[in-house]
Each structure stands twice: as C-alpha cells, then as structure tokens.
Amino acid sequence: MIKLSFKDYYRFGIVLIGCVFTFVIYSGFQSNPTPVGDITLQDERLPVIPKEFYIANIVDERDDRNTVAWLFPAAINKKDESKTYPVDLHGGAGAAIKQFTDHNLPVDKSARPVIIVLKKFVDKESQKADGRIEGRVSLIMSFSLDRGDNDDALHLADYNGSVVYTRSAGAAWDVEPTLRKLLINGLVYINTWMNQQAGTNIKLAKAVKVNFTDYEEKQEGDTIYYSVNRPLKWDDFQSKTGNNKYEAEVFPSVGYDEVAKVINGVVNVRLIMKVSLPKSACWVKDGSQSTYALNHEQRHFDIVKLVAEHFKQKIKAEDLPVSNFEGPINEDYLETYREMDSLQKLYDNETMHGINQSAQQRWNEKIDKELKEYGVR
C-alpha cells in the first residue's frame, strides 16, 4: 500500500492561503527495481484550458539543478537498504517541464506570456522506524509576466505544494505520477489565479485609458480653483505687499490628483486637474485696484488654465504603456510646468507687466481665442 497526502500553499503577493488534498492510492509495484536513470514526465490531458496566459518559458533557479529525487531502490542486500539514489527529470527539470506544458497546455500567443521560475522541486525519501519508506516531495514555483527584452519580468504569484507518501521498503515504485500530479496542481493554481485576477489586477491590464476632470471645491477656502464662473476680485489679494516695484502679483499653479482602477483588463486613469491660486500669496498695492490691473492678473490665471489644457492634449495623444503609464504622465507634467513658467515670463515681458496696453490687448485676444477653442469660454 502506498499512501500519499498533497498540500498546496497558494500565495497571492505576501498573503498565504492553504489548501490540503489527501488521498490513498492502492497500486501494484512497478518495474525498474533500482531508481537509476531519468524520469520522463508522461503526457496527460489537463483539467484546464488557459484563456488568459500561456507558458512562455521555464527558468530553473533551484540550488541543485541535477536531481529531483533521492529514492530508495528495491533492496538487493543489507548494505544497500539505507542508500538513496539521485534521479533527475529527462533532459533536466526546466526542459522536461517546458516539454510537458508545451504538449499538454494550449498556447495562445495573443494571451499573456508567463514565465515559470522553478525555485524547488525535490523528492527525498527516508526510512521510518518500522522499516517503511517515507517520501517528501516539495514544489515551489514563482510565476512572472514576461514584458519583453527591455523590461524585467513582473512577479505575479507563487505556488508552494508538497506531497508526503509512505510505501513498503524493498519494493520498487514509480515516482513520476506523484511528481506529475504536483506539477499539474501548480498549473491549475496559476490558471485559477489568472482567471480571477485578469479583470481587476493592474499587473495583468492590457491597455490604459485616461480621462480628465477639473477639481471643484465645495466650499472655498484660501485656495481658488479655476472656473469661468469664478474670476479674480481684489478681495482675493490678501497678502501684504512688502517692497516691490510692481503694483500687484499672483502665483497660480497647476497640479493633478490621480485615481487608477482596472476595469475589464483596462487601467482607467482619472486625472483630476487642479489649476489653483492661493489668496494668501496674492497682493496689491493700495491705490492700484483698477479694472485694467485686475484683468492683467486674471490673465496670469488664464495662462495656467491653457497650460493645463495643453497637458491634457499631450496625454490624450499618447499610447501609454501599461507597465509604466505614470512615467510619461510625470514627464509631461514636468514639461507642462516648464511651459507654464516660460509663458508667464513671456507674457510679463511683452506686456511690461501690463504697462504696454497694446501688447496687453493682443494677449487678451490670444488667450480668449484659445480658451474658446478648448471650450473653456
């Protein structure tokens, strides 16, 4: 009688989930009394048909890559009874498992390419006090997403399975079905994991979609958020002037909040634009509160709004990579910030901070036209 118990430990990231499979197999002893030579994994119709992935490669990272099993032979004499023999999979574990998956798992190259990293695969037998043989089989596999030559593989999940069996001493038995069963359990696990995670896990997303909204504050505080219905007024200039050669000054800026959610395998990124101006940093000299001067300062705020619209157009024109969609967004934002600084300086230089009225009029018309093009006015 040969008794086996399977234990599978599924790890989602750093979370450990355990499942236990226990069963008893009655089997006649098989040939090859001495376990010397390679083990060939036999083809078997698997209980899964992957829809979300295919096995692209097997990477063997075990400490001992030459042996998968240390087995007792059928006893020949007393001297041999306590000696185990090393046995390997035919062609090596990596090649043997790749051949097994190629033969028994459908390959759809339009699905996600997954790499199996073999961390541990070993069967070690020992003799119990009652003379029977106990075998302990362990399999640890890490699954990663192959992102191409230029990117590192992205870790997805881990499988940790084990089998404990007992058998009679001095009788040969074939360990291959046990190794194959444990391997199949690992493949069933990653198929289940992929099916469960494909629609919502950002690591498995296939595309990125970006939409924009403008931030709106329900109750206004010190910060003013840009709105066509909320132009600047002199009461907003709440800072003390100090020593300055200008009549008034404002400090508008642009930023965004990001919210990302995976829906049906697509990363939906919402960028909440914030074109803002703090009242506590705005100042005006006494006696300078004219309508003309207020318009000049309002145009500084309008320019930042236009820069924010330019940022939106840049993002919309890009095909953002799933693996690093935030990278291009950050780069575009930094470029936008530089554009904002450059345009503000150009505006003040050409208008001479509002003194040149004809230049001010040209900027007024230019800004109004572009705001209208973006649907702001």
What would your notes on this structure say?
By secondary structure, the chain is α+β, with helices and mostly antiparallel strands. It is built from 5 helices and 14 strands. The protein has helices spanning 93-104, 176-197, 291-316, 326-351, 357-373, and strands at 2-12, 15-25, 53-60, 69-71, 85-87, 112-127, 133-145, 154-167, 207-214, 223-225, 248-249, 253-263, 266-278, 283-284. The strands form 3 sheets. Strands 1, 2, 3, 4, 5, 6, 7 and 8 form an 8-stranded mixed sheet that branches. α3 packs parallel to α5 (357-373). The radius of gyration is 34 Å and the shape is rod-shaped. It starts with a strand and ends with a helix. Residues 10-35 have low confidence and may be disordered.
Question: What is the general shape?
Answer: rod-shaped
The name CATH uses for the topology of the largest domain is Rossmann fold
Computed CA radius of gyration, to the nearest angstrom: 34 Å
Our count of helices gives: 5
Q: Which percent bin holds the helix content? A: 25-40%
Classify the secondary structure makeup into a structural class.
Answer: alpha+beta
Structure characteristics:
alpha+beta, Rossmann fold, 8-stranded mixed β-sheet, 4-stranded mixed β-sheet, 14 strands, 27% helix, 31% strand
Topology of this protein?
Blueprint: E1 2-12, E2 15-25, E3 53-60, E4 69-71, E5 85-87, H1 93-104, E6 112-127, E7 133-145, E8 154-167, H2 176-197, E9 207-214, E10 223-225, E11 248-249, E12 253-263, E13 266-278, E14 283-284, H3 291-316, H4 326-351, H5 357-373
Parallel strand pairs: 3-6, 4-6, 9-13
Antiparallel strand pairs: 1-2, 1-8, 4-5, 6-7, 7-8, 10-13, 11-14, 12-13
Helix pairs in contact: 3-4, 3-5
